From TrEMBL:
Name used for this protein in its record: Nicotinate-nucleotide--dimethylbenzimidazole phosphoribosyltransferase
GO terms under biological process: cobalamin biosynthetic process
Active-site feature positions: 319
Listed HAMAP family: CobT
GO function terms (MF aspect): nicotinate-nucleotide-dimethylbenzimidazole phosphoribosyltransferase activity
């Protein structure tokens, strides 16, 4: 058996129930009416149990942006040209993208990984060059990736998580890939066996007529790969996915196996989360959902994961930006959990009812 298959078989780490119980009990003792901090209470309890700690801490956040191009761009499915993927990699490297600004404010570690752009880029300081190929193949003509390429991409995500495992208290996978809302729509529709018309949307900004064209492209792809719809999820990922999506799947699987809490971003990264959960049920125990993006497919995928996102800001940027925006909320939930006095400490009566 090869090492990929061995690794895939490694079980998802079980979440620590003792710390969940301890954190729940502490929340009942803090000087506030029980439940009055709403979802912040659930968040603190969740982070305490995922970190198996009585003092949950999110000082060290690791954000990785995975960038790649998509063969389906040959069908004209985005408001922006394919060259923007590589151009944005340069922008990430020079600190000018939204995620740079947010990561700096959070003092988060920010990795940028080129998993497969069409344009070859010069060596760029701060960008990890892991280019598998010049973008995926057009999934309207055949599988997007070979089996080997799909495994390579998954292992890039796995290894990125492992590269900083001792330090990471929260992991965020962001993505950049012109055309990847078509990819995510095709993949999520195939996994959920649902109508792509319920998921397809403007992405970077298509008008209604262009969204209709994007839908017919995705329908063609789903028809071409119909024989795989009853098959395994890895084959669907290989047929309809993208390099950056497969890398995020590998990162999420790795986090769940190693016991690293994950904050999930927008439509594309949630589709990767759904894929990871279908490959290895139980992964989602390690996920927290930051926001619901404006892309209509995001709600469908979140619902399929039974996810309750924290924010709804009509963001649709990707890069991990929605997740980064939610980190201060998570940190405040932890600060309240750790820093508030108990009724006993403050000598306040808890009331009888
Ligand atoms: O995160 C989201 O929900 C999201 C929604 C729409 C678009 N995006 C970003 O926009 C790009 C894909 O859009 P498109 O129209 O080129 O398929 C890609 O770089 C994503 O990061 C991201
Ligand atoms: C400019 C730009 C920045 C992005 N960041 C993530 N997706 C993006 C798409 C575009 C077009």
């Amino acid at each position: 058996m090869n090492s990929f298959a061995e690794w895939l078989k490694k079980p998802v780490k079980l979440v620590d129930k003792t710390h969940e119980q301890k954190a729940l009990a502490r929340q009942q003792q803090l000087t506030k009416p029980p439940g009055s901090l709403g979802q912040l209470e659930n968040l603190a309890v969740k982070i305490a149990s995922l970190q198996a700690s009585e003092i949950p801490d999110l000082t060290h956040v690791h954000i990785t942006v995975y960038a790649a191009d998509h063969g389906v761009m040959a069908e004209g499915v985005s408001a922006f040209p394919q060259s923007v993927t590589a151009a944005m990699i340069r922008n990430f490297a020079s600190g000018g993208a939204a995620i740079n600004v947010l990561a700096q404010e959070l003092t988060a570690k920010l990795d940028v990984i080129n998993v497969g752009t069409v344009d070859t880029l010069e060596d760029i300081p701060g960008v990890l060059d892991k280019r598998i190929d010049a973008g995926t193949a057009n999934f309207c003509d055949g599988p997007a990736m070979t089996e080997h390429q799909c495994q390579q991409a998954i292992l890039i995500g796995r290894d990125n998580v492992l590269s900083d495992i001792e330090n990471t208290q929260l992991y965020i996978a962001g993505e950049m890939g012109i055309g990847n809302t078509s990819t995510a729509t095709a993949l999520a529709s195939a996994i959920l066996k649902c109508d792509p018309a319920d998921l397809v949307g403007p992405g970077t900004g298509l008008d209604l007529q262009s969204i209709q064209h994007k839908l017919t492209v995705i329908q063609r792809a789903l028809k071409l790969h119909a024989d795989k719809l009853e098959g395994d999820i890895l084959t669907l990922l290989q047929s309809l996915g993208g390099f950056e999506i497969a890398a995020m799947v590998g990162a999420y699987l790795s986090c769940a196996k190693q016991g690293v809490p994950v904050l999930i971003d927008g439509f594309i990264s949630t589709t990767a989360a759904l894929t990871a959960e279908k490959i290895q049920p139980g992964c989602k125990n390690w996920f927290i959902y930051s926001h619901q993006s404006a892309e209509p497919g995001h709600k469908v995928v979140l619902d399929a994961l039974d996810a309750k996102p924290l924010l709804k800001l009509d963001m649709r940027l990707g890069e991990g930006s929605g997740a980064a925006v939610a980190v201060p909320l998570l940190r405040q939930a932890c600060l309240l959990h750790n820093g508030m006095a108990t009724f006993e400490q403050a000598n306040i009566s808890k009331g009888d009812k």
